[in-house]
Amino acid sequence: MAAGATTSGGTVSNIYKGNSAKLMFPAWAMIGFFLLAPVGMMIVYSFLTKEFRGGVIWEFTLAAYDQFFFDRGLFGDEPPSIEWTYIGIFWRSIWQAGVATIACLLIGFPTAWFIATRRPSTRSAWLFMITIPYWVNLLIRTVSMKFLIRDTGPLNEFLLWTGAVSEPLGLINTNFAVQLGLFYSYLPFMVLPIYASVERYDFSLSEAAADLYSSIWTTLWLVILPVVKPGIVAGCILVFVPSLGAFLAPDLLGGAKTFMIGSLIEEQFKGSAGNWPFGAAASTILLSIVMAVLLIYARNQNKGSER
Amino acid sequence: MKKLLMTASLAFFALTGAAQAEGKLSIYHWFEYIPQELLDKFAKEYDVEVTMDTYDSNESLLASLKAGKLGSYDVAVPGDYMVKILNNEGMLDTFEPSELSNFGNIEDQWADVSFDPGRKSSIPYQWGSTSFSVNRDVFSGPIDSLAIVFDPPEELKGKINVLDTSGETLTLASLYLGIPQCTPDKAQLKALNALVQGAKQHWASFGSDIAKDVLVSGDAAVGMIWSGFSAKARSEGANIEYAFPKEGYIVWMDNVVLLKDAPNRENALKFMNFLLEPENAAAVTNYAQYTAGVKGVAPFLEPAVANSPESNPPAGQKGVFVEACPQEVQVLYDAIWTNLKK
């Protein structure tokens, strides 16, 4: 990267010649301090021996990964079989995050469309309104959601009062509550990128499609979606990835009973499990999965553009 | 303009006033366990700037200190067995009784305790019990057994909140099964594992900081809870009764400990001495509704607190302390807890 700045030639880059290393320093320092060092530490710790109740002993071991993939019984004295528990937690997290992402897309796309089709002078006001709730701390918003939907909360009181239900819906401490919490937490991350791509959409394309007797749905599917797809993909990634690692929603809305990846990892560092290498290993595995998915996506994107 | 100048100078004095404080005191404490007025009183009396962070279980206190917080706090308030663990981990500093002029105020029964022989690192804070409370609007049957939590009757299933702490939850489960604490016996541990695994489906949630709130709001009809926290829930309007189950319940004592590498050791000792004043110990009791381990608090107590059913167990009931297990046994209990939570 540092080389690229000097080889591009031209008068402007001549000014930077010889200074490129210095000029690149802030960027590399950022990457080094905030990306490489923490991730490297995480990977190293995942191969260390755990110390009783938190901490590590500097001895290499694969015990953390062994614990993740193999079941040796409650007390570790049985012949190993495949451990489904953690795979199950990962699967559950992917499922919860996936449902939240789809819900965000279903609500977020029409919302973004609505905003992008308002008069330009009012659009920023609409966007402003979308972001207002997100000035409040995530913890407060999650607790508020809990107060809203719990059995004795206003939602159930209202439904009981209208007679729509005869007993509380029992929403709190369920997977649905967790999905709702994730959906609510990350909705703007879906709306904003989609808005950005819909705003650039040339509406004469829709008119052209209509002139050619395309139905609304065909237009949406064959004309609009391909154009705004980058925004949708960006939104999905921005919602899915943080949802995958969330631990506030499962803790507060799921009653701390339904572990997701985030709560599993948190328990290793803050809870009574105190198993740092295992927490690091679970994080490393999670990071690997996310990286793999993003790489596959990026490769498909490149293939698509070569066509 | 005059007003502006006035405000500016006031702000200036406020700022310099804070800067002039004798020193600092950094407390690591349980949530909702000390009245702000008492902290303010200490800050004013000794001209010390007080800061406080909170935790919600003995285990998370230990985890946090191990994760590098040791050296940033002066005092913490661990329960009995955690005092012993912290001491074994080398996380406590010691002091001489002569360094606390009020040392003699410690009640005789708490002056020499097994978890800190001779009180070299700790003083009593409050003591109480851990059991469970039942909403009497929902359930009117007998609540004299831990079966209410671990094998609940039909009408209470799915309406139970359990403390999110392995030490207390697994100890109550052991009491229910009648097995000893810290048992290395695999058959007994498997039975313990099976009990909590089977009971989990009847539990609505795990949570310690929410334990009072879910009872007051009615989200839970049964809550494993600490005695004083239950009394507070009751005074906030929950129609609940605190149980003293026949299988036994947990008795604990929380202690103010002097942490190793305390940045403000002098102020920490001043604070500990301050908490041994009967009036101040009583202020904590009136707030948290447990029982102080300090002589002479009686005249300062509110009658409702002193006579609360939660703090006055019926005679003949068995209260036990949570034991600190040896490491090779503790890992087995940790395995059961992790297995339960996953």
From TrEMBL, chain A:
Keywords: Cell membrane, Membrane, Transmembrane, Transmembrane helix, Transport. Its main location: membrane. It comes from the Bacteria. One of its GO terms (cellular component) is plasma membrane. It is a multi-pass membrane protein. It is found in: Cell membrane. CDD domains: TM_PBP2. InterPro entries: MetI-like, MetI-like_sf. Residues 90-297 form the ABC transmembrane type-1 domain. GO terms for biological process: transmembrane transport. The chain crosses the membrane at residues 27-48, 94-115, 127-149, 176-198, 219-241, 276-298. SUPFAM superfamilies: MetI-like. Pfam families: BPD_transp_1 (PF00528). The keyword 4Fe-4S does not apply. Belongs to the binding-protein-dependent transport system permease family. CysTW subfamily. This is ABC transporter permease.
TrEMBL record, chain B:
Transmembrane segments: none annotated. GO terms for molecular function: polyamine binding. GO terms for biological process: polyamine transport. GO terms for cellular component: periplasmic space. InterPro entries: SBP, Sperm_putr-bd. Keywords: Periplasm, Signal, Transport. Residues 1-21 form the signal peptide. It comes from the Bacteria. It is found in: Periplasm. It holds the Pfam family SBP_bac_8. Spermidine binds at residues 32, 81. Belongs to the bacterial solute-binding protein PotD/PotF family. Required for the activity of the bacterial periplasmic transport system of putrescine. This is Putrescine-binding periplasmic protein. It comes from Hwanghaeella grinnelliae.
